[in-house]
Amino acid sequence: GDFGDLRYIRRMALPDSEPTLPPSPDWTIPQDWARYTAEDHATWDRLFARQSALLPGRVAPEFLAGLDILRLSKPGIPDFAELNDRLGAATGWQVVAVPGLVPDAIFFDHLANRRFVAGRFIRKPDQLDYLEEPDIFHDVFGHVPMLAHPVFADYIQAYGQGGLRSLDFGALDKLARLYWYTVEFGLLKTADGLRLYGAGIVSSRGESLFALDDPSPNRIGFDLERVMRTPYRIDDYQQTYFVVDSFEKLLRQTQETDFAPLYARLAEAPDLAITDILPDDAVITRGTQDYARSLAKA
Ligand code: PHE
Ligand code: FE
C-alpha cells in the first residue's frame, strides 16, 4: 500500500503504546531543525517534487494557495520558526513538534488553541510510499497548507473544541470519523470537478491518484450524521470518500450543530458498513470496490 496518516490508528488501536512520561506539560518538544541530515532534506525534496508535480488540477485551489503563502517550495525540511511566521500572519495558527502520539485531551487542546501538532522526524528513503505513523512530510505538507486558509483554519480549531467536548460524552470514536473523512481524506466539489484536500490523500502519491480517478471507491456527498456512522479503514486506501460543497458550509454546519443529541442518537444506532450506500445518499460515484476485493484475495 501507499497511504498517509496513521495517527488515529495508534491512538485508537494501541493506547498502551503511549509514552507514560510527557516530555513537557503540553507534550511539545523543540523541532531541532539543525539536526536534520542532508539525507533527511533530500527525502523531503523528493516527496515535495513528486507531490507538487502531481497535484495541480487534482488538489483544491485553497491547498495550492497555502503552499504558496507558506513558501513550502523552498528546498529542504521547513524550519518551524520560519513556517510559523508565515502561518501566524495568515491565520494565527502555529505548528508545534511532538514526539509522536500525544493523549487525546492534549491533542484537542492544542487544536482548540490554534496549535497544530506535528511529528518532527522524516521517513527513511526506502519508506517514500509507506510508513506506520505520520512524519513531518505528512503533517506539514499534508496539513499545514489548509491551515493557511481562514475558513479551514477555523474549522480545525472548532474541531479541537468539539474534541474536548466529545470526551465528556465518550464519543471520541464517532467524532474521529469526522476528522478522518474531512481533514484526512476529504474531497471538495468545485466547478471544475472533484478536488482533493484531505492530508492523508495529498501526502500520498498513490492515494492522490486513487481517490480521484479509480472506479473502486464510493464518492458520496458529505452528511454529518452519516459520516459519523461510517467506520474507516486504517490499513489501505479508503473505500468511501465524502465530498463537501464548500469549506464555509462545512464550518457553519459543524459549528451550529449541537453534537450532544447526535452523540445520543449515534450511541443507539448501529454503525454502517464502510461500503454501504443509503437511499438518501447523494451518490457521486457508486464504487465497484474492485480494489478492496483484490486486496482481500491477495
Ligand atoms: N458543534 C460541535 C459540538 O457541539 C463541535 C464541533 C465543531 C465539532 C466543529 C466538530 C467540528 O460538539
Ligand atoms: Fe494527519
Automatic annotation (TrEMBL):
InterPro entries: ArAA_hydroxylase, ArAA_hydroxylase_Fe/CU_BS, ArAA_hydroxylase_sf, Aro-AA_hydroxylase_C_sf, Aromatic-AA_hydroxylase_C, Phe-4-hydroxylase_mono. The keyword Oxidoreductase applies. Residues 1-298 form the Biopterin-dependent aromatic amino acid hydroxylase family profile domain. The keyword Metal-binding applies. PROSITE patterns: BH4_AAA_HYDROXYL_1, BH4_AAA_HYDROXYL_2. Pathway: Amino-acid degradation; L-phenylalanine degradation; acetoacetate and fumarate from L-phenylalanine: step 1/6. Gene3D superfamilies: Aromatic amino acid hydroxylase. Its cofactor is Fe(2+). It is an enzyme of class 1 (oxidoreductase). It catalyses: (6R)-L-erythro-5,6,7,8-tetrahydrobiopterin + L-phenylalanine + O2 = (4aS,6R)-4a-hydroxy-L-erythro-5,6,7,8-tetrahydrobiopterin + L-tyrosine. Signal peptide: none annotated. Belongs to the biopterin-dependent aromatic amino acid hydroxylase family. This is Phenylalanine-4-hydroxylase. It comes from Sphingomonas vulcanisoli.
